[in-house]
Amino acid sequence: MGIIFLYFALFLGVHFLSKQFKRPGAARLFQLITCFILLFGFFGFRDITVLNDTPHYYGSYYQLTRQHNYIDSSIFVYRLMLNFEYGYQVVQHFLIKYISKEPFTIIIFSSLIISWGNARFISSQTRNIALALLMLLLSGILFDQYCLIRQSFALMFFYIAFPYLQQDRWKPYTLLVLLASLFHLSALVMLILPLMQRLKICKRNVFLVLGSALFFSFLVYEMFSLLGLSETKYFIMNIKRNTFPVAALLDGSLMLLLILCCLYLYNKMGIQKPDKTVFWTGMFGLCVCIITPSFLSFFRLNVYIWPFIYMTFFKFTDTTSDLTYTGAQHQCIALRQQMLVTILIILAIRMAIILTFRNEWYHLIPYSFYDFSDRFHNYNMYWEK
Staple partner for 182: which of 53, 87, 192, 248, CB 3.0–4.6 Å? Predict the structure, then answer.
């Protein structure tokens, strides 16, 4: 566990080192480059025993490199038996055919895309890139992203699409979400956000939305059956569960806490212009949390939402964030700093508990780098677990 928290501490070190730069632009560039190197170095060269889905993607790549008829065929052919979305199939086939047959290629390539996508997204949200990434690391959502490769590719499109949603530009937003769905079909659910965004922000609509999610959580299995999805692996996996998902309840409580902190600061600081997109995105995240205890696979929808929840909280509590348009950036400085430090401590304790008692959630310990000199790797060691 020590090496993991030492890695976290490096981001804190980058944050304080950046304060030595006199020009804000130089400090931002230093953080952007250094944080990208830290992310890509840690995740891009991890062993296939690190993070749950790593051996699955590695193993699929490995098996396909041994099929000559696959390699020689067009990269645009869709293969139903692969159980991968079309966009990911094209990317994987392109890498195998034109880049490298070394199966670790998919790990390096995905880590490169996810690292740059997150660094770019965080840079667009705050000047304190390193501290924001530290929060995302402690929360565990970055571990989920590097684990869930296909969905993370979809998330990179959603990062680009979200500003269009804020600008009420439905066409480019919809197009980008459709492109995201080529890598993970769950992205299609994000087409709900433009509809929710049309709702007026009031207690009645909030209760209506959250109440609808609660009602749906009681009927989720019946709804899946009516839609003819009762034979899917997710339905079967969830219906066989016989334990209450405590982790889902804790995640929902954490999201509620962060949203309540943001709403409290919103009122405390006298901000006059709420962002409807961010508000209803948060409400959608809570809806997912309400449904997840009944149908655990729904938690994957919040892979798209969590980064925006954390970054909204970070911008409210970061005393250097640009809130000049509200005239509120210099208000409640001590309170905002205390909230940020408190949440970081809570997340650090939570991560320590997970690594100690629930390491199977991430398979982070023991951490090791990939051995390129070893020609044999047990890529399927978690296949049946």
Answer: 87
Burial class (CB in 10 A: 0-12, 13-18, 19+), 324: exposed
Cα–Cα distance for residue pair 223/216, rounded to 1 Å: 8
Q: Which pLDDT tens digit goes with each residue over 191-219?
A: 999 999 999 999 999 999 999 999 988 88
Number of residues assigned to the chain: 385
Angle between helices 306-317 and 246-268 (to 10 degrees): 40
Amino acid at 97: K
- The sign of the CA dihedral 6, 342, 311, 156 is positive
The pLDDT tens digits for 230-245 are 666 666 667 666 677 7
Mapped onto helix, strand or coil, the DSSP state of residue 369 is: strand
Instruction: Give the span between the Cα atoms of 303 and 377, in whole angstroms.
Output: 29
For residues 382 and 75, give the distance between their C-alpha atoms in angstroms, rounded to a whole number: 29
Please name every residue paired with 46 in a beta bridge, in sequence order, or none if there are none: 369
pTM, 2 dp? 0.92
Identify which of 290, 294, 302, 285 has the alpha carbon closest to the alpha carbon of residue 244: 294
